Queue: 4 jobs
Job 1
Amino acid sequence: MNKELTSSFSVKLGKNGREIHQMLQQVYGKCALKERTVFKWVQHFQEGCEDPKDDARSGRPCTSIGNENINRVCSLMLSDRRLTVRMIAEELCLGKSSVYTILMEHLDMKKVCAKIVPKLLTPEQNLRWKECCTDWKTLEESDEFL
């Protein structure tokens, strides 16, 4: 059980911050939360907050995963599918995690062996794939393949 939930439980039992801190020290020793942190959590829970996670904060929005960068990554991938995430990141001056997120979530691509490819083929690509397979099968049957 994490220490914040222990604090929440103890607050519901009517314990104050000092008592909770002493209990945490008995259990966790030197690894216990600092007294000031316990007081902060006690106040947080007394105000009615049940979730020990911090509230979302306004901050600087993520700018690396925008439509412009998605289009840049897409065009670079279409020009050479052998590029790695690191190579794309260096080429476009983006972070590797941003490039990875763009490829996986926004462009719906995944890594297969050493190449990053679309997860699902478009109808045109699927038709072309079937045509290629049929051609290979015909070549194999006619011994022209080798």
Note: The two ends are 65 Å apart (CA to CA).
Job 2
Amino acid sequence: MNYFYEHIFIIPIIAFIISVIIKWLFSIQKKWKLDLNIALWSWWMPSAHTAVTVSLTTALGLKYWINNDLFILALTFTVITIYDAINIRYEAWLHAWALNKHIWERKFRESLWHLPSEAFAWSILWILVAVITFYL
């Protein structure tokens, strides 16, 4: 058995760290200031919370197979997390946009949501991170 099979909780930690590093590198590329807080923003892709849930669900599926209660529980939380990232945050974006259009004293962040294509593409990466790490 490998180390990550016995210590499965490390896989989502690795996915989280990778997502923060990728987000930080993207922020440098966009010529934003070199600030780690940017990498911890929850509204910008790649989504760290999706990285954690998708990689954990994948790792549990690899270790216990998909008919196990732990996998089903993790999958449920992953679906809720991705649903939130795509749909509920979209509604929050609509509210922020409307408020910003009509109220000039305060600006609300409008970039809150993730596109379904973004969530899908990044989820594939987190699945690959979990599979590769699991079999190291």
Note: The longest helix spans residues 69-102.
Job 3
Amino acid sequence: MAKVTKNNQPTFVGIKAFRSDFAKYARQVEQNNQPVIITKRNKPLFVLTPMSEDVYSEKVLEAVVDAQADVAAGRTYSTQEVRAELGE
């Protein structure tokens, strides 16, 4: 179970709990403007944070351009590789 804190302090949650209740954590980020840090074996994997509209558009476009460059250069992972990395 994740620990919920106040004052924009992040919530830490294990990957399995996050996977099973993604909607709950997404709502928490959206409603409380509170980041959620997803961990695996107590090591941070990634963070789910709220985005403002002005940052969203720019960041998404940058990510799309970067992703297209990665695909063109062959820097991709198979579904099996991603699942193995996540321990599935």
Note: Residues 1-5 have pLDDT under 50 and may be disordered.
Job 4
Amino acid sequence: MARPAVRILSRYLVRQHVAPLAFSLSALTALMLLNQIAKQLGNLVGKGLPASVIMEVFVLSVPFIIAMTLPMAVLVAVLHTMSRLAADSEITAMTANGISVSRIARPVLLGAAVVALLAFLWNDQVLPRSNHRLRTLLVDIQRKKPSLALKEQVINEVVPGQFFLRAARIDQATNRLRDVTIYDLGDADRRRIITADSGHMGYTPGQTDLYLTLYVGDIQELRRGEEAQFNRTFFQTNLVRVRNVSNQLVRTGEDDYRGDREMTVCEMAQVVDAATDDARDAHRDAEATVQRDLRRLAGLGPVPAPPAPAPDTTGGPYCRLLGRLTRWLLPAQAQAQTVQVPVPGGGARVVPPPSIPLVTPGGTSGELERVDGAQRRAAVYLVEIHKKVAIAVACFVFALVGVPVALRFPRGGAGLVIGTSVFVFAIYYVGLIGGEDLGDRLIVSPFLSMWGPNLLFGTLGLIGLWVMRRASPTARGGDWSDLRDAVVGLVRRRRPA
């Protein structure tokens, strides 16, 4: 009869965590989403976008926010639930019936492991797609109204290949310009450069043409075929109309470019494999260059280059399993046929694919730069791969930290939950951001740069569980005064007499 009772206890402990997890995840996600809305709403509303597009921007921001708040929610839920159970003497009753602390923590950690697995799938499958759609949408929004996309001290392309504008100062609120220079290349028979002390931008009622009202400047004009004649006209007020500057939002259909945060683990693994192959080829080319020069000096003939190893594009077990599922669920892709060119006299000649000419390396210095570039490119994607997995595993690590802390301080209340959560979050995410920068610069290995915070808190959690196994939890005491007395006693013991 012991096993059914243990199963009932496990289900009870897991159920107690569901409601706090859902509440904390919703609250933290809502807070971070409100922060995102506060930062971007002004820029979006000023472009005259429909409410559906603005809502889509914030909805596409939710997956990234959930990826960051889910580990936080796990820690908050574990701290709140376990401290409440300990304060209500439920943990004491369990230990009095012979159930160890490790047995009590087991269903909580198993539940956290399931959440970590779901978090990894979320980070690998949902998050890259939402990031890609969000970036594409933001680029489309930026192109919608050039007056809000113009940058100061930069030559901005208002009409592609025809009209360029530079301004030293741009007031986004009033569309006022200072120190304006315009390069008008729209007419193939003439080139104009317009300079003005100041100006103002406005749109026609149809929002298709841009009006520039310029003050105190000149127009320098040069016509084709009349290179010996240069015209310069001064003005106090000049009105320039730029046609076909659309103010309509044009959505991008397909965008093949994807950054590291818009790719899945398998896609980034292919990039890493390609960069690794490039570095290996550079090493081999550098060695071949040195050997060829030495053999030439010794009067020996050249040695044929060894065949390059075939690249491994299968990926790990996860990518192979995902590939099988994709081929099973999705229809097979059409295969291109081999092109056959008829030749005189009958028959057909198979046209081989175009070959890429090999470039003979000129020296080892260029190959070393090539190796360094390939290693840095691989490091960026390796860091992102490890970050996806490490953030997901943080759900389990935070639960491992929260259980012993909640059992040791059962009467900490809201102060325990808030204080411990803020402390852990601050250290973890500062370490994550700093580690990402160090990993991208090859100062620290990609694994250690992303897994360092997990290893730190995982070790602390295991030590805490080991300590709690030796000292059974109790509802007596266990508030913040115990922590204060422990710290004061430790300081006094270390103080010299």
Note: The chain has a mean pLDDT of 81.
